[in-house]
Amino acid sequence: MAKAPGDKTWIWEHRDWPNFGWNEARLTGPLANAHRKEGRVSQAAIDSAEDTRRAQLDAMLSNILNSAAIEGERLDAESVRSSLARRLGLPAAGLWAPHAESEGMVQMLMDATEASDKPLTKSRLMRWHRLLFPGASADHGGVRIGTWRGPEPMQVVSGPHTRRRVHFQAPPRERVEREMSAFFDWLKLSQRELDPVVRAGVAHLWFVTIHPFDDGNGRIARAISDFVLAQSDAVSVRCYALSAAIMDRRKGYYDILEATQRSSPSDITLWLLWFTETLEAAIDDALRRIQQTLIKTRFWAQISGADLNERMKKVLNRMLDADEPFKLTTRRYVSMTKVSKATATRDLQAMVQAGCIEPIPGAGGRSTGYQIRLPR
Questions:
Q1: Could you give the residue range(s) of every CATH 1.10.3290.10 domain in the chain?
Q2: Pairing with 59, which of 32, 46, 78, 367 sits 20 to 30 Å away (CA)?
């Protein structure tokens, strides 16, 4: 059934688009929490820059892998890590050669976060889009590369053809150039006027609503959020992964986007609350990972003189990287290293004598288990 005159389904159809509004009072507390924790991350980066450079690699790796995963795409983690290590000046020996897709995502994210002092322009955005599709022709499987989308209606749909549900419809193609021009102008003028988290949330919603490309809009929207947040960071090393936190809340992400895009631009408070809380979750994870990195550094310094073979080091790194207490047994060591039980037993005894691991209190006999011996 056709819409009656004056009916508005999508946020961009309202007369006050894109004049966004929100409830300042409801955002005050969540924004204060996010900024306080962001300050702690920045201070950690200042206090231990060498260690947090590796934490930055881990954060960027997580950001890239999860931003692709949100869209249902899988990148090779080792290829992405290799590309990041080379670009961050970290040891890359033994890492796989980066793939073109990984290299493109890395270049886009690093340009967004480490060159945030430069304005986002149409030409820069087109370059980001081409980086997402390396080696592709100008028209790649119906996806126009490095140019605005085609004349076909841009919809986000689900379900079979007979019961298709339209979750979102973007503005018509003829409006894209004008919409993006207004977006670029706003980015230039809003940096000193808005709270940076609010600004990043608005930018994300605004761009993904315009949906200017045939494909890659979500990944670029998240890169734009990182770009905006990087403009306000106190340090150049960024250790939190917003896309990873969004991936953890993927259903909620799509639900709140759909609800917001069906509402009026005059009140996007719920979207900004969700965005702020998700950013806070990303910062919480960053603080945990920085602490974990510092523990690993102190651990390896503590046992620097130990005579360890490569399989021992591999297992110790697995134990140090675990999010939960890691119980190491002879059987588990055999499974991880593919050695005999006798070799596993000798290795475990050598690691105990070197002060790397210690028996778990109360465990004995056939259930003997070991835990990492953390720096004291």
A1: 11-294
A2: 32
Q: What is the pLDDT of residues 214-243, one digit of tens each?
A: 999 999 999 999 999 988 864 445 667 888
- Three-state DSSP state, 243: helix
Of the listed ranges 65-69, 140-144, 357-361, the one predicted with least confidence: 140-144
What gap in Å lies between CA 99 and CA 101, rounded to an integer? Answer: 5
What are the two backbone dihedrals, phi and then psi, of residue 134, each rounded to the nearest 5 degrees?
Answer: -65, 135
Q: How far apart are CA 78 and CA 356, in angstroms?
A: 27
Say if residues 290 and 240 touch (Cβ distance below 8 Å): no
Class of domain 11-294 (CATH, top level)? mainly alpha
Which ranges in the chain are annotated with CATH 1.10.10.10?
305-372
State the fold for domain 305-372.
Answer: Arc Repressor Mutant, subunit A (1.10.10)
pTM assigned to the model: 0.77
